[in-house]
Amino acid sequence: MNRAATAMPETPAQIGPLLRDWRQRRRLSQLDLALEADISTRHLSFLENGRARPSRDMLLHLAELMQVPLRERNALLVAAGFAPMFGERRLDDPQLTQARAALELLLKAHEPYPALVVDRHWNLQTANAAAQRLLSVLPASALQPPLNVLRLSLDPNGMAPLILNLGEWRQHLLARLRMQVHASGDAELLALLQELSAYPPLPGEQVGSNSTPRADVVVLFRLRLPQGELALFSTITVFGTPTDITLSELALEAFYPADPASAALLQRLADAT
Fold first, then answer.
1. N or C, where is the chain less crowded by C-beta within 10 Å?
2. Which domains does the chain show, CATH number per domain?
3. DSSP label at residue 136
4. pLDDT by residue (tens digit) across 5-31?
């Protein structure tokens, strides 16, 4: 009883700074968030400075408005003294059978164009045959699991020497990763960003510039293969309403040909297998 009594006052001090941190990450003022949450700015201020303790429902409401990832919503709940709400299953868990089937359907339907599924840290989970064909041009030493697709793209011993617009692609990937770090506060993503930012440019690499006008409407991934050159662009697909942490952190990146020559080459590669 004494331990419980002394622990309770510490809880608001733990949850308050976390709420404030997420609000600031989303670049919301207290007034902005209070209006969205339909509470007073005074009440929100009390929650953030520890003078009031949020209810479980209020905490989940604020987290939803701030689009806090499910993993971090669990952390907020624990910090406020509640049990975590969202489960985390392995991708091969029987309860995720339908989700896995949906991913496999999307991957197969995207042939002969490459597509792959990654987790929140950009580690490869699965890929279709077209993506595997592109990876097969790399030495086996570059494909040792766990395979991080961002690291593989920029590693001088990986795919980087094959990327024709490496400077532009490097800038694009690092900018994307930087936004993820800011949005999530994920320490492992931050470490990955620091690692990839330290990679030196390759000889002859042209460093991209944000001020350089582009003829393309998207940043293209231009790849040199033994069979020819590819120009690709990509889209990202995520599960819309997940309640499982694993599903919420998966993303399917699908690549499309940017010109008829690239489409024809991808089809020839598929026909040759």
1. N
2. 2-79 (1.10.260.40), 94-271 (3.30.450.180)
3. T
4. 333 344 444 899 999 999 999 999 999
